[in-house]
Amino acid sequence: MTVEQILSEFLLSKEDLEEVMRRMRREMERGLRVETHNEASVKMLPTYVRSTPEGSEVGDFLALDLGGTNFRVMLVKVGEDEERGWKVETKHHMYSIPEDTMTGTAEMLFDYIAGCISDFLDKHNLKHKKLPLGFTFSFPVRHEDLDKGILLNWTKGFKASGAEGNNVVGLLRDAIKRRGDFEMDVVAMVNDTVATMISCYYEDHSCEVGMIVGTGCNACYMEEMRKVELVEGEEGRMCVNTEWGAFGDNGELEDFRLEYDRVIDETSLNPGHQL
């Protein structure tokens, strides 16, 4: 078999792509509805982010980004700019997460995160400040408020025990408290797609969709509240985290999968998920 013949197996016709699109849209609609949400592969999770930035967000903030093998801590300074409305300056440091920390316990993982924060604060002489902190946490979470979210399941090679089913912000606050050498005001936890959408809004006020193509692939968008049945109220809008990386978990893509897909899936940490 030639290389061209093997590669041809990966090509989808326009009709195939349109069929995948129809199936994904059906799962997205099922994810938004109360009666079908639990069975839907695309969960369409409410984020409790009810608007895009409106101009009052100025000051110093600490940002955390956990979503892959690297963990990032960032100092964000937001000020007013006469021409563009906002002026954003950042300083950041990247920390590599050891594999045994990714697959150990939740306490190990969040203690490591707290240690990275402490190191960053030392480097920038910020230990004396209690800054508002935003946590970008790029895993499936069921939000109960902007600063409270339950981890549904790990993805992307993470397997830390004792985290699934627990409040992620609570795990972070506990780790900071155990360390005891700094204080932070954890005000929000969002998905990386949401953080991308909001940060892009500073450049383009028409931005209402965020998409990530990296270790995983996911998207969010602003939805009318009347369609977000998992949250009470019909007025206004809310950002929805699609978690479309799980599309296919219920067999929707079975007739498109190849032998290579099956081998990779069977040897992964979470077989049958994030196909």
UniProtKB/TrEMBL annotation:
<dbReference type="InterPro" id="IPR019807">
    <property type="entry name" value="Hexokinase_BS"/>
</dbReference>
<dbReference type="GO" id="GO:0005829">
    <property type="term" value="C:cytosol"/>
</dbReference>
<comment type="pathway">
    <text>Carbohydrate degradation; glycolysis; D-glyceraldehyde 3-phosphate and glycerone phosphate from D-glucose: step 1/4.</text>
</comment>
<dbReference type="InterPro" id="IPR043129">
    <property type="entry name" value="ATPase_NBD"/>
</dbReference>
<dbReference type="GO" id="GO:0006096">
    <property type="term" value="P:glycolytic process"/>
</dbReference>
<protein>
    <recommendedName>
        <fullName>Phosphotransferase</fullName>
        <ecNumber>2.7.1.-</ecNumber>
    </recommendedName>
</protein>
<keyword id="KW-0175">Coiled coil</keyword>
<dbReference type="InterPro" id="IPR022672">
    <property type="entry name" value="Hexokinase_N"/>
</dbReference>
<dbReference type="GO" id="GO:0019158">
    <property type="term" value="F:mannokinase activity"/>
</dbReference>
<feature type="domain" description="Hexokinase C-terminal">
    <location>
        <begin position="209"/>
        <end position="275"/>
    </location>
</feature>
<dbReference type="Pfam" id="PF00349">
    <property type="entry name" value="Hexokinase_1"/>
</dbReference>
<dbReference type="GO" id="GO:0008865">
    <property type="term" value="F:fructokinase activity"/>
</dbReference>
<keyword id="KW-0963">Cytoplasm</keyword>
<dbReference type="GO" id="GO:0005524">
    <property type="term" value="F:ATP binding"/>
</dbReference>
<feature type="coiled-coil region">
    <location>
        <begin position="7"/>
        <end position="34"/>
    </location>
</feature>
<feature type="domain" description="Hexokinase N-terminal">
    <location>
        <begin position="3"/>
        <end position="202"/>
    </location>
</feature>
<comment type="pathway">
    <text>Carbohydrate metabolism; hexose metabolism.</text>
</comment>
<dbReference type="GO" id="GO:0005536">
    <property type="term" value="F:D-glucose binding"/>
</dbReference>
<dbReference type="GO" id="GO:0005739">
    <property type="term" value="C:mitochondrion"/>
</dbReference>
<dbReference type="GO" id="GO:0006006">
    <property type="term" value="P:glucose metabolic process"/>
</dbReference>
<keyword id="KW-0067">ATP-binding</keyword>
<dbReference type="Pfam" id="PF03727">
    <property type="entry name" value="Hexokinase_2"/>
</dbReference>
<keyword id="KW-0496">Mitochondrion</keyword>
<dbReference type="InterPro" id="IPR001312">
    <property type="entry name" value="Hexokinase"/>
</dbReference>
<dbReference type="GO" id="GO:0050796">
    <property type="term" value="P:regulation of insulin secretion"/>
</dbReference>
<dbReference type="InterPro" id="IPR022673">
    <property type="entry name" value="Hexokinase_C"/>
</dbReference>
<dbReference type="GO" id="GO:0004340">
    <property type="term" value="F:glucokinase activity"/>
</dbReference>
<keyword id="KW-0547">Nucleotide-binding</keyword>
<keyword id="KW-0324">Glycolysis</keyword>
<comment type="similarity">
    <text>Belongs to the hexokinase family.</text>
</comment>
<keyword id="KW-0808">Transferase</keyword>
<dbReference type="GO" id="GO:0001678">
    <property type="term" value="P:intracellular glucose homeostasis"/>
</dbReference>
<keyword id="KW-0418">Kinase</keyword>
<keyword id="KW-0021">Allosteric enzyme</keyword>
